[in-house]
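User: I'm preparing a small set of examples for a lab meeting where we compare how different chains pack in three dimensions. I only have the primary sequence for this one, and I'd like the structure in token form so I can line it up with the others. Please keep the answer compact; I'll paste it straight into my notes.
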Amino acid sequence: MSATLTPQPTPQLPQPAGHRTTRHGFFSLGLARIGFEIKLYFRSTDTVFFTFLFPFIMLGIFTAAFSAQGNIGTNPDGSGGISVGAYYLPGMLAAGMLLSGLQNLAIDIAGEKGDGTLKRLGGTPLSPLSYFIGKIGQVLVTGILQAVLLLIVARFAFDIALPTEPEKWLTFIWVFLLGVITCAFLGIALSALPRSGRSASAVVIPIVLVLQFISGVYLQFNALPDWMQNVASLFPLKWMAQGMRAVFLPDSFAAQEQNGAWELGLVAIALLIWLVVGLVGSRLTFRWIRKDS
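Assistant: Understood. Below is the structure token output for the 293-residue chain.
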């Protein structure tokens, strides 16, 4: 008598820790995490001071320190030109984008790796995509809030005239959004560089500080040596500051740029290249835990 074989059900393999949800779940978790990241951001007094408030402080210092020297870009007869505060406002906006994105995320994520936060998140349904959405969303929200408040302070506290042409504000919007998102991805990628959370500030802040000095944020860009201007042109902050100067400075100041023009097309190309570099770099380097842990 032949035996009847009963088909056995296919065993279900257990899902590994950190099993990911559907694509819809990716965005739902990411959007929910934005609010959580914003709360953490404003609860950290060090982060708020060195990223959110720092451009306000520096604008106030430069305005108070150099206003007695008169306007910048005056004609030989002493007429024309703009105030010191108006000249440094574009640089402070660009610096705020860099601080909110690159410096903030690089130090923050490195710290989360060091204290085990990322390792714990790796065992939850939160995917790297959801995590990225939360971090970049936080940078966008805080960056927009910082820029709006900085413009309000510039207008009413320092009496700096703001543009009235719609095309100027359209340029501001795309330079700002492209710059902030680029800096956010670069910050995620740079977070892999510090070997521990404790060393993150010591590694990241000097890089950010040097970029600010050579990119026309604290020093007049046309007064820098040609070789320093060329080096700065390899990095995104120079192009972010140049794009902001195109928005807030009179068109006559374009002659002081490296090539004698605002070159907004090159600004867009440079930032898009760095956006791709940051996106690829963050994807290749991000780990819930360090490889050498």
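A couple of notes for your slides: The first helix runs from residue 23 to 43. The CA atoms of residues 173 and 246 lie 12 Å apart.

User: Perfect, thanks.
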